[in-house]
Design brief:
heterodimer; A: 292 residues; alpha/beta; 9-stranded mixed sheet; 10 helices; 9 strands; 40% helix; disordered C terminus; B: 569 residues; alpha+beta; 6-stranded antiparallel barrel; 4-stranded antiparallel sheet; 30% helix; globular
């Protein structure tokens, strides 16, 4: 009996190991497919924080892609992260386009980031169609490094249009969106973050220090592993740098949950004609079926 | 101003400008502010004290209310923006006359004016009356054209520039004041001056509608009868001259004309006689025409009128190619373009383009014009003539880049095209760049400058250099997290609980929820100087709520009310 129990345990272990290996192999394949046609690490745009870059494949945002920052309500700090990424994207003399339909953007607030105002273009569109058109035009232009905007509702077709525009112009689209309208829904964004402000731990000696906390969760990442959580400190005392307190890798349970959402990512990925080589659609068909 | 900011409707507002000797002065005042006695040329502090003393009429209330200083809105005056706006109108007004110009100014300020800059347009209407069905009809059409742009206009047609200027500026002044007051109180929806001469004229006070500003059209001897009762300032006299005349007891033009010319010339100078002749004796005066050089105007007349857009688009293509070829030949590029489609039975369709950089590239200009045509082409109009003018041109300069600026040069052309496209569709004022000022009041510390349709001299200055960062080691407002990324305009009132009356906030109600404050920074007292107008005294707090959100609140010191002014997004 002992032998048979031992054999069954070994068998279970072997099956577990086998499943693990299979999953690893499959994940690797999916990742390599997702990253097909993408630029190497040299073309990546830094988010301004090493730990955030570490969660992204290639160590940064990919030029010509959309990044979404989802948050619940205002005052969470998502825009700060967006502008910080924009700073990296406009290096080399490119321009920053801020599409601000609600006329709320206050440039004094962005001075701390060191953004050059002489290369900042602000657009105040009057209608939602004009907002989309302005973002689209900005993303298509090769002179624009990044487009920062806030969007509420975004139809799939419009999102696809923006994503194609970003691909064409090589600009980075940084969109702030309300969590209730975007979370858990299919997205054309290459990276989707959830930003939540965090209360400062009182009772420390640094209670009055000009810093704030926020938690960042990677909801979607093309070619990467979603689910990572980062606890960040936005340090106003040290030039507004973003420090990372803690990085929590994705747990097993969360990994399964996020893996189940893989269909959403794949759907978005498969509809990327510029990255799909001719003739490879047939090869991907089983993957699509498996993913769905 | 009312077009840009609807919050100004029903509120008195003034524009302030800095006088090198007298400090901050009122450059222009809205009609509601004028009702309180605030006139251009007054110091801002005097305007504030007047505002405190005078009861003002408030919209929808029959009883006058006592105003507080905070009800007066003080905004920065931008002379360049004024000039741009006037030039923009002059460009468009060329559909009425081939000769449109800004008024020519004297060496010093005229009596009755507070600013040494053009404020009126002159149109040469000689022999143009029959085209519009008479000079009265022409004046009414011009007025309708202004009204369609949300502008209130005072128009006079007379035998000389001097007479027309006097009648438009002083003959229509009481009515213009009431029309502007109506706009200030009710906004621009019901613009005054829409009534044609044949319709019954609604005089001021007869109803709730806007008062009419019927144009004055006069010729010959009748002009003198209208000019005699006008004040002497209507002659465009220097301030000193007007004061001298008033000291002599000469108040009106009629009284002045009773004196012998020889005596006036020897005692008060030739300039007075010259001005009198310009107004009363119809002395010819040149108009500084803004119309473009004839080589930068191209036209296409159709034998048979057409309403097919495809045909018109083809015409626009050809005209643009022709215009660009002419401009390139003289090393010029267009900065502003006006394209006019003259219709047989209706108003002409006018397209106006502003460009970021002077360009003579036909495909780019064509795409912009066709894009705008698509937007404005609401219904079929039978067009019999298409004309295209480059109303502002600039040299097609190639600036040698700095050694370390090569990257920027690569993107400069591309971004110029993008800006042209954006501003063509969204409007010139919707595509802007921020301009920061060191003003303690947050909403006045930033203004927006349109990027297209103006000549830019030199290179844009780097932000850090422009602001001239102070050397103190104290925290500055440009330090990270000192100012929010989103500013709410106007600030939203909040219900706040504070333990001590002047103390920091403990709890406030925001978005239907009670929010606890766990940390705060402040108060940062922001106080506008007494010379800047109604005193703005606020205590700002950056607060962190129990869920970690950062907001920017302030307490108005005058009445202790709390407002939310920004979000650290």
């Amino acid at each position: 009996m002992v032998n048979s129990e031992g054999a069954s345990e070994a068998m279970t272990l072997w099956i577990d190991q086998d499943r693990h290996q299979t999953l690893q192999a499959l994940t690797k394949q999916v990742r390599s497919l997702e990253l097909a046609g993408r630029r190497g690490e040299s073309g990546r745009i830094s988010s301004g924080c090493v730990e955030i870059d570490g969660c992204l494949p290639g160590g940064g945002y990919s030029p010509g892609s959309l990044v979404e920052f989802l948050s619940d309500g205002a005052g969470n700090g998502g825009q700060w992260l967006a502008f910080q990424a924009a700073k990296g994207a406009i290096e080399g003399g490119k321009y920053l386009l801020v599409v601000d339909p609600y006329r709320r953007f206050y440039p004094w607030g962005s001075l701390g980031l060191g953004l050059p105002l002489e290369r900042m273009i602000v657009v105040h569109p009057h209608s939602s169609s004009d907002v989309l058109w302005a973002i689209d035009q900005g993303l298509r232009s090769t002179a624009i490094g990044a487009v920062v905007s806030s969007l509420d509702r975004l139809e799939d077709r419009d999102a696809r249009r923006l994503q194609l525009a970003a691909e064409q112009g090589g600009s980075l689209g940084l969109l702030s969106r309300p969590s209730r309208l975007a979370r858990g829904l299919p997205s054309w964004a290459e990276v989707q973050w959830h930003v939540a402000a965090q209360r400062w731990k009182l009772g420390t000696t640094e209670d009055r220090v000009n810093c704030r906390r926020m938690e960042l969760q990677l909801l979607r990442c093309r070619g990467g592993t979603p689910g990572a959580r980062l606890k960040l400190i936005l340090d106003g005392e040290r030039g507004g740098v973003v420090r990372c307190e803690e990085v929590r890798e994705v747990s097993k349970a969360e990994g399964i949950r996020y893996a189940s959402q893989g269909a959403v990512c794949l759907a978005a990925e498969l509809a990327m004609p510029t990255h799909v080589a001719r003739g490879s659609v047939v090869d991907r068909a089983p993957l699509r079926a498996a993913g769905a | 101003m009312l077009q840009g900011d609807r919050s100004l409707i029903g509120r008195p507002f003034v524009l302030q400008a800095r006088d090198p000797r007298r400090g901050w002065m009122v450059a222009a005042s809205s009609s509601l502010a004028r009702e309180s006695g605030i006139a251009p040329g007054m110091s801002i502090s005097a305007a504030c004290s007047l505002m405190l003393r005078t009861p003002i009429r408030s919209q929808g209330k029959s009883q006058p209310q006592r105003a507080d200083a905070a009800s007066l809105v003080v905004l920065e005056h931008d002379p360049q923006e004024d000039l741009d706006a006037l030039s923009w109108i002059a460009d468009g007004a060329q559909c009425f006359s081939p000769m449109v110009g800004l008024e020519s100014l004297g060496a010093s300020l005229w009596a009755g004016r507070s600013l040494l800059q053009p404020q009126a347009l002159c149109l040469d209407a000689t022999h143009l009356g029959p085209i519009f069905g008479g000079e009265e009809a022409m004046a009414c059409k011009v007025q309708e054209w202004f009204a369609s742009r949300g502008l209130c206009s005072a128009i006079a047609i007379a035998d000389s520039v001097g007479a027309a200027w006097a009648l438009a500026n002083y003959g229509l002044r009481p009515k213009a004041a009431s029309a502007l007051l109506y706009q200030n109180e009710h906004g621009l929806e019901a613009s005054p001056g829409m009534e044609l001469p044949s319709s019954p004229v609604a005089e001021k006070g007869t109803g709730d509608g806007p008062p009419s500003l019927r144009p004055i059209v006069v010729a010959g001897e009748a002009t003198r009868d209208l000019l005699y009762p006008l004040p002497i300032e209507a002659l465009r006299l220097d301030l000193n001259m007007a004061q001298a005349l008033r000291r002599l007891g000469i108040e009106t033009i009629g009284t002045l004309l009773e004196f012998p010319r020889g005596g006036l010339a020897t005692r008060l100078g030739e300039a007075l006689i010259h001005r009198m002749d310009q107004a009363v004796s119809f002395l010819e005066e040149p108009i500084n025409s803004m119309s473009v050089a004839p080589e930068f105007t191209v036209e296409f007349s159709l034998e048979h009128p057409t309403d097919r857009r495809s045909h018109l688009e083809e015409i626009v293509r050809r005209l643009t190619a022709d215009l660009c070829q002419r401009m390139a030949g003289r090393n010029q590029g267009a900065l502003r373009i006006v394209c006019r489609f003259d219709a047989v039975r209706s108003q002409p369709v006018v397209l106006q383009l502003g460009l970021f950089r002077a360009t003579s590239e036909a495909t780019h200009l064509t795409s912009l014009l066709l894009g705008q045509l698509e937007q404005q082409w609401e219904r079929a109009v039978e067009v019999d003539k298409v004309s295209l003018q480059a109303t502002l041109t600039g040299a097609l300069n190639w600036v040698q880049p700095d050694l370390f600026e090569l990257d920027g040069v690569v993107h400069r052309d591309t971004v110029a095209r993008l800006l042209d496209r954006l501003s063509s569709r969204l409007g010139r004022k919707a595509v802007v760049t921020p301009s920061l000022h060191r003003d303690p009041v947050p909403e006045l510390a930033c203004s927006w400058r349109p990027l297209t349709g103006r000549r830019v001299d030199g290179k844009p200055q780097a932000t850090s250099r422009k602001l001239g960062r102070p050397v103190q080691a104290e925290p500055q407002i440009e330090d990270p997290l000192r100012r929010p990324l989103a500013l709410l305009q106007p600030p939203r009132p909040l219900e706040v609980v504070a333990i001590v009356p002047d103390g920091p906030p403990i709890q406030f109600r925001y978005q239907h929820q009670n929010v606890q404050v766990v940390r705060y920074w402040g108060p940062e007292r922001i106080e506008s100087g007494w010379w800047r107008g109604p005193s703005q005294r606020r205590d700002y707090y950056r607060v962190e709520s129990s869920d970690g959100k950062w907001l920017w609140l302030f307490r108005r010191i005058d009445d202790g009310r709390w407002f939310l002014h920004g979000e650290f997004d």
